[in-house]
Amino acid sequence: ASNQVDTLIPLLLARYSDPQIAVDIAISMHKNALDNFETAASLLLTLPAVEELRVREDVIAFIDACRYACTSNFRWRYGFAPFNAFHLDYNLRSPFQVL
């Protein structure tokens, strides 16, 4: 996911000719995508088929896997010894929280 955002900024910069505008638009697009994901996840949990406990647990596990898929490589790379050079704090409420 990071590569898409990294690629998006130069494309927006070419269109708007202002680095801050390009970054602001990319951040806004990212936030909108996160909001859409959370809305879809909440709606998914309201489906009648998800009322059964085992199905609900599986759906929640799937949602969490999707939610954290884009940060898993980052977490593994910098959170796994001997690569733990940055001593990252994984107790954040969201992997997308600004540090």
pLDDT < 50 stretches: 81-99
What structural category characterises the helix and strand content? Answer: mainly alpha
Number of helices: 3
Q: What is the averaged pLDDT score?
A: 76
Radius of gyration: 17 Å
Helical fraction:
55-70%
Strand coverage percent: under 5%
Report how far the terminal alpha carbons are from each other: 18 Å
Gross morphology is: elongated
Indicate the topology.
Layout: H1 2-16, H2 19-44, H3 53-79
Helix pairs in contact: 1-2
Give a description of the structure.
This protein has 99 residues and is mostly helical. Helices cover 69% and strands 0% of the residues. The protein is built from three helices and no strands. It has helices at 2-16, 19-44, 53-79. Helix 1 packs across helix 2. The longest helix is centred in the middle third of the chain and has 27 residues, at 53-79. It is elongated. The two termini are 18 Å apart. Residues 81-99 have low confidence and may be disordered.
List keywords for this structure.
mainly alpha, 99 residues, 3 helices, 69% helix
Briefly, what is this?
The protein contains 3 helices and no strands. The protein is mainly alpha-helical.
